[in-house]
Amino acid sequence: MQTDRWQMADFDEWARLAQRDPAAFECRRAEVLEAHIRRAPPHRQLRLRRLQWRVDATRRRTRNPLVACSRLYALMWDAVAGAGGLVETLRGGAPRRPAPRPPAPVLPLRPGKPRQNPT
Question: Does the pLDDT of residue 46 top 60, yes or no?
Answer without folding.
Answer: yes
